[in-house]
Amino acid sequence: MADLDRPAPQRRSFIARIFLSPDERRLRAGWRIVAQFLLLFICLNLLGLLLGGILTSLSGDAAMLFSLVISVVAITVSIYLARRALDRRSFVSLGLYLNRWVVRDVLAGIAVSGIIMGVVYLSEWAIGWLRFDSFSWKTQGFSQALINTAGGLLVFVIVAWQEELLSRGYWLQNIEQGLNLFWGVLLSSLLFALLHLGNPNVSWVAVLGLLAGGVFLAFGYVRTRLLWLPIGLHIGWNFFEGTVFGFPVSGLSFIPRLINQQVKGPELITGGAFGPEAGLVILPALLVGAILVYYYTKGRNTDQGG
After folding, report:
1. Are residues 235 and 106 in contact, defined by beta-carbon separation less than 8 angstroms?
2. Which of 205, 214, 278, 291 has a 20 to 30 Å separation from 193 between CA atoms?
3. Cα angle vertex 183, ends 42, 85, to 5°?
4. Which residues contact 264 (CB under 8 A, 6 or more apart)?
5. To 10 degrees, the CA torsion angle through 107, 108, 110, 116?
6. Can you give the pLDDT of all 306 residues of the chain as single tens digits?
7. Which candidate, 179, 191, 189, 240, places its Cα nearest to that of 216?
8. DSSP string, 34-79
9. What is the 8-class DSSP label of residue 97?
């Protein structure tokens, strides 16, 4: 009799089935991602209207840093609004819990990526594909080299925050909820790679390398369910690649560097003017990094990153 008395489930309309999640009253994951893009577009344009005058008055490094600040504010605000209004979840639930792992994970990520780039540098140097020229403080002076290093670190902290919040934060987690973890990692990593299509010297090999790099960064999130480790990995990747070891960073070669060097090896392996991400040399280095991440996170409880 209990089954006869139970009310029949309410039939969902065609529109509801397309736009709404089957088990809760919120947009499906794909629509949430599209809506977040629209919010980002609106935020960028609003900030451009409000702060465009200041930006046009600046030049050089100041203009680049100010435009980066506009970008990180727009991305952060758009994701915060999307997370609250569309996802109906808290912002920190993206993996931003302030717990005992914050500093440890960021520093561990920076160290792992430092090892990765050290492996790349030493491998190319040992084979004869890289020529060391000088240390920057020999030509610029110690104080200027220190300022450049600090500036590079600041820029890469901002870049890592915004790209990880977007890629391993909003994209990966929403796609995972809509499909599964495999597709969340793969599609978010592909979107991450495609974000760099406008960079100088980009190629299909570079896109594949960035895709592999995105999967590596996602591995840090999957192992901890926090964004702090991938943020640290991302900071260390760019900082050691460009500022310390003197490689181009995803095609960008204007970054001040501590080591002046020249890469002379085959572009397919070294990555050439785009940097190691576009070369086969990055694959064994990523394997080394993945092993280090695995052992660092071994036995970790991923319930709210704990």
Report:
1. yes
2. 291
3. 35
4. 128, 129, 130, 131
5. 160
6. 445 555 444 565 545 555 566 677 788 888 899 999 999 999 999 998 998 888 888 887 788 888 999 999 999 999 999 999 999 999 999 999 999 999 999 999 999 999 999 999 999 999 999 999 888 888 888 888 888 899 999 999 999 999 999 999 999 999 998 889 999 999 999 999 999 998 999 999 999 999 999 999 999 999 999 999 999 999 999 999 999 999 999 988 777 889 999 998 899 999 999 999 999 999 999 999 999 999 999 988 776 555
7. 189
8. HHHHHHHHHHHHHHHHHHHHHHHH--HHHHHHHHHHHHHHHHHHHH
9. -
Residue 280 contacts residue 156 (beta carbons within 8 Å): no
| Nearest CA-CA partner of 118 in 252, 305, 289 | 289
pTM: 0.90
C-alpha pair distances (Å), 163 with each of 6, 8, 128, 272, 299: 48, 46, 34, 24, 27
Alpha-carbon distance 298 to 85, whole Å?
35
131 sits in which H/E element:
strand 130-135
Residue 260 DSSP one-character state: E
- In the DSSP assignment, the letter for residue 106 is H
Q: Which amino acid is at 112?
A: V
Contact assessment for residue 70 and residue 44, using Cβ atoms and an 8 Å cutoff = yes
Coil, strand, or helix at residue 198? coil
57 contacts 22 by C-beta, under 8 angstroms: no
